[in-house]
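Hi team,

Filling in the usual template for the complex we talked about on Friday. All components are listed, including any nucleic acid strands or ligand strings, so the model treats them as one assembly.

SUBMITTER: L.P.
PURPOSE: interface mapping
COMPONENTS: four
RESIDUES: 684
SEQUENCES:
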Amino acid sequence: MQFGKKRTTIADIAKASGYSKTAVSFAFNCPSRISEGARNRILEIAMKLDYIPDPSARNFSLGKQLTLGFLLPQGIETSLENPYLVEVIRGLGTVCQDHGYMLTVIPPLNDSIYEAVKNATVDGLVTMGYLMSDGVDRLVDLRAIPLVMIDGEESGGFLSVNIDDEEASYVQLENVIKAGHRKIAVITLSAPDLAAGDSDSGLVGRRLKGYRKACQKYGLNESDILFCKGEATFSSGQKAAQEIMLSDATCIVAMSDIQAYGAINALEKAGKKVPEDISVVGFDGIQLNYSGMTLSTIDQPAYEKGRIAAITMFDILDGRSVEKAPRVSFSFRQGDTLTQRR
Amino acid sequence: MQFGKKRTTIADIAKASGYSKTAVSFAFNCPSRISEGARNRILEIAMKLDYIPDPSARNFSLGKQLTLGFLLPQGIETSLENPYLVEVIRGLGTVCQDHGYMLTVIPPLNDSIYEAVKNATVDGLVTMGYLMSDGVDRLVDLRAIPLVMIDGEESGGFLSVNIDDEEASYVQLENVIKAGHRKIAVITLSAPDLAAGDSDSGLVGRRLKGYRKACQKYGLNESDILFCKGEATFSSGQKAAQEIMLSDATCIVAMSDIQAYGAINALEKAGKKVPEDISVVGFDGIQLNYSGMTLSTIDQPAYEKGRIAAITMFDILDGRSVEKAPRVSFSFRQGDTLTQRR
DNA sequence: TTGAAAGCGCTAACAG
DNA sequence: CTGTTAGCGCTTTCAA
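RESULT (copied from the run log):
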């Protein structure tokens, strides 16, 4: 139940103005459907009585929230630390704004995606980097709200806005190999909260396939690569680098730029020079210009991904049929952190 | 009215299970208030019939949205381009997450703050850099939801989380003057959408007071300072710099780092060297490491501001009395972009 | 152009 | 422990 002093409601205005609730409702929403006299009178009374329609009741009645939800892959604290994610949000938000919508940022509530999805009062859900686990995809189904993924899985009939990750990671590793590196360490990503994170259809699975392809093509033994499990955070990159420094790897291949920056930070703290002592390649294309050098990375259009995801969502919400989300493009960007192995 | 196929409702479960709606409700919300048998039976049926309580109806009935709103000072596109703002959001979001709340980012809808506030289905509103104009403060009043400001006005009985802006801008300019600069250009900020943006109690007003004080203290003529109107965007900084280059100013003092970076960008494009040809000082303390140099700036705790604002908000929502928001501290940070005038 | 009244789906006071 | 029932505030159909 409500607490606090009672708000003025539509009924109060109806009574005070002598008109019906219908009229009051129209006065606010379809001014053309009542006479000008009635409208003026009603609005005047409303003004006098400090009345304003309650958006919550309105949304409930309408069955619309005028809000899109963005399901974060991690807690807010680390999510917003990642410029790649922020760019995605910026893209999403811009489209929302154009449609008169708001954007709700939804962290795993009580550490549970399930809980978060259950409680989200939104018209549609955009996820990033998730795989649909049994529980959650069923839940989304129950909620009967549309779902658009970013960096999601490519199978299972979900809509996901992706680059060609397999090809991209292939290109990423190819550049490393062509620079003469043979001792390579990879920092991986794990889909949050979902054991299936490494399944073939997931982001990590596709990336690994690309690496495998590159290995085959260039005669590298995949098992010679040092794989370090990580997540998309700065500190995860630092931690991985510390581990990698114990090996004889000459190049670190990160699945995310924020990891790459973390790795560089750890390397430099340990007195290593990048790229002289060890090269680093990232993935995403964020521009931090860490310690004055530019990162070699796979550049992907984060803002565009968000934009497209939101546009796709509104297509669905507006009843336009959507076959599948368009694929976006990437490119390799040569920076200072990857150099020919000497 | 709703569209699409009818959702399963609590009534369906009540009927199918043979229990009442109350029982069903309790089964989901206060499991302890019904017998275990009933609970199991109900949940089982619910599962079978794909039932899940509708959060919108629930929130409406409860009069709670479990969501905080953050009113953006500008459109999303430029807002999220500003790392200072992102840090604030990160602070806000972290606290929300801890409380099981979501965070809704609210751009001025249809370019109108009023409209945005009117439609926001949130339990509380955090604003940033706004002054309360007549319309909006009345509206917030009508909505009867608590409001906490960041970088807001210090008078008028509103709660605002601020640094001592007057002192900070004094220190900012003092450092410039002590470095020997006498020809100074200031890029100002204007409170969005509100004519009263430069009123004394607003952020800009307080900052200007600080500048005035510094001028008096060091025998500068305030009217010798070139004031350029701007807003907190990169491009605004670029534009201002172009104007300033036509003057004989030896130092640019920006009210926001993002402007400072924009200014540096424009200066370098025009062949000027920073700080050799012209110095630049920012305000906020964001770390972009633009073109390999660090910005001289006033460092203020963005994340902390967001955190405190959110904590204050929950204090209010939870009925703890709040006198006023605590003040946070700042410091001057010497970087590469401000140098002794030769 | 207008209004009565039936929802929307859930919560919770109250009575048993 | 359980059920009846009256809201919550707004929208909208339908008939006047």
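MY TAKE: Chain B touches chain A through 57 residues (CB under 8 Å). The radius of gyration of chain B is 25 Å.

Thanks, L.
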